[in-house]
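> forwarded from #structure-qc
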């Protein structure tokens, strides 16, 4: 059985929040001290599969907003009142969690607390900087498949934070570096192509 402190346990708890609709404020409250980590995972998950615009762009912008707060060493994320008041259907939330659980549970079998200093409060600004770069990469990623390495990297960093596994955080940073290189190559090719018309 997964501990409620593990990623899968936290997601299952989210899926069982009461009511036909779940407000964003209730989701953040349920995450408690893991709010940053789970927000990062939730923003990375949609980008692990081919997704049409503007999903990577939206996830990248929200992730940049969250990462900037980590960079400023805020202990809990601040979200605008309008966003906190928004809600999603409980059935949609439960369906999304159900899809995410199998790969997360498989990953949890290999994850354990190690190199825990990378997930501590002193490392928060550094991780914020890493996630900010990944967010910028998502914003300019090639459509449909360019965001996949970056989405995977974001998920690994988020899971490392939840599981207190510094090795997962390092793996996420390495995958992210590769994803950023691909995004930079795409951006350079796009700019060069546009410049050829002038």
């Amino acid at each position: 059985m997964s501990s409620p402190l593990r990623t899968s346990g936290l997601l299952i708890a989210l899926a069982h929040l009461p009511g036909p609709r779940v407000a964003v404020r209730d989701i953040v409250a349920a995450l408690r001290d893991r709010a940053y980590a789970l927000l990062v995972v939730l923003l990375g998950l949609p980008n692990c599969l081919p997704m049409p615009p503007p999903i990577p762009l939206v996830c990248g912008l929200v992730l940049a907003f969250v990462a900037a707060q980590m960079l400023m060493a805020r202990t809990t994320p601040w979200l605008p009142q309008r966003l906190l008041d928004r809600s999603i259907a409980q059935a949609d939330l439960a369906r999304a969690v159900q899809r995410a659980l199998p790969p997360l549970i498989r990953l949890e079998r290999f994850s354990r607390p190690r190199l825990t200093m990378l997930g501590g409060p002193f490392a928060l600004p550094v991780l914020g900087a890493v996630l900010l770069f990944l967010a910028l990469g998502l914003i300019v990623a090639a459509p449909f498949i360019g965001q996949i390495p970056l989405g995977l990297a974001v998920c690994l960093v988020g899971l490392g934070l939840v599981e207190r596994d510094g090795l997962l955080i390092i793996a996420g940073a390495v995958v992210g570096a590769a994803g950023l290189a691909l995004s930079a190559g795409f951006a350079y090719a796009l700019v060069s192509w546009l410049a050829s018309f002038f």
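QC bot note: The chain is about 65% helix and 5% strand. The chain has a mean pLDDT of 82.
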